Amino acid sequence: MSTQFAGTIALINSWANVFLYSMEVTLSAYFFQCHKTNRYQKFSLGGSLFLDTVCSAVVCYYTWLRIDDPMIESWSRGIITILTYFVSVCEQLYLVHRYWIIARNRVVVFFVLLGAIVHLVFGFISGLLSLVVPGSVHSYGILSLTIAAVTCAATDLLIAINIFYATRNIDTINPSTQSLLFRLSIIGISSGIVTATATTLKIILLFTSLRGFAFLFNLVGRIYTLTIVVNCIALERQKNARARSIATENSETQTSNNSRSPGSVVLTTLGQLLSVFSNHLETRKFI
Prior knowledge:
single chain
């Protein structure tokens, strides 16, 4: 009964993995098709998708092995561990790049990069131990997994809090820019909370239920990639909405200028051009 249950759990895990992977591929295709992308978005999202594709294939292979023999252990567990932490680094680099554009704070960026390196190294060590010592819970493997998970969660929260703080402390008198900054702060803190919550659950399950830990760990990489693609889509939507708002304001101003004298129209037009230029600079800074 226990072996049948383990096989069933592995099958459900693979279904959830395929569902999340299909969602991220669909959203990524929509993003690349419908929005202009910069080099960093292509690198972050493309790299995460590639790693997730390999990881999802390994998860499905591992599930196939578990259904055939629920007690089997293979090299796939170590590969999943290594790939998952590489995906988490891609997500953190994407978010810290956004933070750097907004705040230019070298101290925060240094600690984020340090945290990313630490959890990647210990995650890699844990994956290697799983490959070298398959089928056993190695004491150093548990320790390295714990350090990697704690550091990863702390790094996610550090990024989220600082993005929220940076966007909420920018002074601007433009209402549309204020609205944009508010939405950016909500997106940033939400992303960090989601990823940090998933990582915290991993830590709890690591000491309470190894089966639950394995179930969640197989899905965390997809959660990280979904965080990147949702951020990309949300930011592009905010940018497009802001552009439409500016265009509407300019159109209304132009309409009101038709009833004014030629001199006032010239002065108003110059002011309007300066306003458009200022809005354009602010948009490029925050998005």
